[in-house]
Design a protein that fits this description.
It is a single chain. The chain is of the alpha+beta class. It has four helices and 14 strands. It folds into two domains: about 90 residues, Immunoglobulins (Immunoglobulin-like); about 130 residues, Immunoglobulin-like, CATH 2.60.40. It has a four-stranded antiparallel sheet, with no helix packed on it. Strands 2-8-7-4 form a four-stranded mixed sheet, with no helix packed on it. Strands 9-10-12 form a three-stranded antiparallel sheet, with no helix packed on it. α2 crosses α3. The N and C termini lie far apart (about 110 Å).
Length: about 250
């Protein structure tokens, strides 16, 4: 009496074992991130009860996080490398051993781009023109040219800009006013005069938030002014002014 029942059970098991294991993901890839990074939700479809996902252990910039249900999230951090893009793989697995089924998701992140394109033109002994094209057309930024010997009073351009903005805030009454007056959006062109002849200078640009904090990397270009001009008697014509005075930097000369 029990034999037919046993046979039915065994037959059912054989049928279940013969069912093909299925596993797929959406999107199936590849995923391409910009240098700023980002997140992507990936849906897993399988006829198995369990599955697992794993990112490459030697690629810390790309991580995965399982969420409830049948999905997971891929996260890419910011890529500051301007030389090369990054690549890795995320593996989804169901089953074990020889019966395991895997799907590989390729992930690529583009290399970082400079926040500004800077060109220095019309260089004379006492002036030069800086043209800046920002990558982010909506972000406000400050651009300028300064003699490199003036930076001896500061650790770097970042410290110079920070102190400059503090001075401008006191001059204009608030940091918000200083930022609105000294910064701009989109392409900017400025001719800076009162440079010293024959000295190394740097043209730079940096993004600034409403509170005067830098929100981009500083992009800069080095150059030299031409040697001093001479008058008809061969005497050097001295340049006017010293670039370190704050008034020159914020338009109050």
């Amino acid at each position: 009496m029990l034999l037919p029942a046993v046979a039915t059970v065994l037959g059912g098991c054989r049928k279940e074992r013969q069912e093909a294991m299925t596993l797929s993901i959406t999107p199936s890839g590849p995923i391409v991130y910009e240098a700023e990074g980002g997140t992507t939700k990936v849906t897993v479809t399988t006829n198995q009860k369990t599955w697992e996902v794993q990112a490459a252990r030697n690629q810390k910039w790309c991580t995965v996080e399982e969420v409830e249900g049948s999905s997971f999230v891929v996260k890419a951090s910011v890529n500051k490398n301007r030389e090369e893009e990054r690549q890795t793989k995320v593996t989804v697995t169901t089953g074990t051993g020889r019966d395991a089924k895997r799907v590989v998701l390729e992930v690529t992140q583009r290399k970082a781009q400079a926040p500004f394109d800077i060109k220095i033109t019309e260089i004379t002994d006492t002036e030069a023109t800086i043209t800046v094209v920002p990558r982010d057309k909506e972000n406000r930024y400050f651009c300028d040219i300064i003699e490199k010997n003036s930076l001896q009073y500061f650790n770097d351009i970042g410290e110079f800009v920070s102190q400059l903005m503090d001075f401008a805030a006191s001059w204009y009454g608030s940091m918000e006013a200083a930022v609105l007056i000294l910064t701009g959006k989109g392409e900017q062109t400025k001719t800076i005069n009162k440079l010293q002849p024959g000295v190394e200078c740097v043209g730079y640009a940096v993004g600034l938030s409403e509170d005067g904090k830098m929100n981009t990397e500083i992009e800069s270009v080095d150059f030299w002014t031409q040697k001093a001009q001479t008058d008809k008697n061969g005497q050097q014509i001295e340049a006017v002014g010293d670039r370190i005075w704050w008034e020159n930097r914020i338009g109050k000369e």
